[in-house]
Write a structure and sequence with these properties.
The chain is an alpha/beta fold. It is 22% helix and 34% strand. Helix 2 runs parallel beside helix 3. The chain is globular.
Length: 360
């Protein structure tokens, strides 16, 4: 084969490979700060097949590649539009403002199964307006190690995620898999950020997948709690502080009660710093508990099979309902309103909050 023929063959192979690439996720925006953000999308480059017989490779999985671009030097409190990979890659997001500027965000979780229901939840959220950002309380997919599940998640979420900033929380069904970190450009599974006069903290309570031994898990959790205390101490002046983690310290699901003794260690920290509200997932329903002035909201109605709320907790349970839903939060200066919405727009629950400064 001549050099010219070889070059033509290589060029043809490259064109075939390029033609095979297709976008199967995104665009979406993560790591949004006052002056920076990362726009990402997921590309399928090929497909792998698997089977017990060479002639019958019935199981397939996509080969995925994440493409990201980071922008710096942005203007705070501004809507930024982008075009990431052509006509289908257009979207926009807001950068967080400073000061007591009104804003709104949505919280939801446990979208890991019943894809038709997950799609209905996203449709309801899209119809609700354009939030400044959204937070997922974990269990995005049923198995974070299964590559084939991620394009399904991104396909369902597309119309929501291309219009806002996305802040994910690690759930137990992500299995602490590297794909979660890669897709969402996550460096550490616990982090915090500011939005206007609010401070938001996202924790990792999936201790079962964080390390292979009890000693390592205990060391990890001790360090995370130390970081949490330090982070909240720096944010004492914030009017509102919201904390997000997957496993709820309080639940009205009888078979789940007493499951997470480690997570209960977070409760004294929430009370110490007068946290405005805590958002959890894991239990597939809506729950609202109130203890020592801290609201604990379970929002796990994103698509996973519903759990009964068969054991309300005496003295702290305020509202429970086993239904698909999402939660909206509006912050307006020194006041905030939390509302849980069913998919038909019905208001399940309403919580009024005052600035933490008013409580001091």
């Amino acid at each position: 084969m001549t050099r010219r023929s070889l070059a033509l063959v290589l060029l043809a192979c490259g064109l075939v490979a390029q033609a095979a690439d297709k976008v199967v996720g995104g665009p979406y925006t993560v790591n949004v700060g006052p002056r920076s953000a990362t726009v990402a999308w997921v590309v399928q480059t090929s497909e792998a097949r698997l089977g017990t017989d060479p002639g019958e490779l019935s199981r397939t999985a996509p080969v995925l590649r994440v493409q990201k671009v980071s922008f710096t030097g942005l203007e705070a409190g501004t809507t930024h539009h982008y075009d990431s990979f052509g006509e289908g890659g257009k979207g926009y997001f807001k950068t967080p403002p400073s000061g007591a500027v009104p804003f709104q965000f949505l919280v939801y979780g446990d979208t890991r199964s019943r894809h038709d229901v997950h799609a209905r939840v996203i449709q309801a959220m899209v119809k609700a307006g354009e939030p400044d950002f959204v937070i997922h309380t974990g269990d995005l997919v049923a198995d974070g190690a299964d590559t084939a599940q991620w394009p399904v998640f991104f396909s369902i979420e597309r119309e929501l995620l291309r219009k806002t900033a996305f802040f994910p929380c690690l759930g137990n069904h992500e299995r602490n898999n590297p794909q979660y970190y890669e897709f969402f450009d996550v460096q550490l599974p616990y982090y915090s950020f500011d939005w206007a006069n609010a401070h938001i903290v996202v924790l990792n309570t999936d201790l079962g997948n964080v390390a292979g031994s009890r000693v390592s898990r205990d060391a990890y959790w001790k360090e995370e709690l130390r970081w949490l205390d330090e982070d909240l101490a720096k944010s004492r002046k914030a009017d509102f502080v919201f904390v997000v983690f997957h496993h709820p310290p309080f639940t009205a699901v009888k078979r789940r009660q007493g499951d997470d003794k480690e997570v209960n260690q977070v409760v004294p920290v929430m009370e110490k710093f007068k946290i405005s509200a805590v958002y959890n997932g894991h239990d597939h329903n809506y729950q609202h508990h109130l203890k020592s002035g801290v609201h604990y909201i379970v929002t796990g109605g994103g698509g996973a099979p519903l759990y009964p709320v068969d054991a309300p907790l005496a003295g702290i349970t305020q509202k429970v309902e086993s239904t698909e839903h999402y939660v909206g939060i509006q912050v307006n200066g020194k006041t905030a309103k939390i509302q849980a919405f069913a998919l038909d727009g019905r208001v399940i629950d309403t919580i009024e909050l005052a600035s933490r400064a008013e409580a001091r």
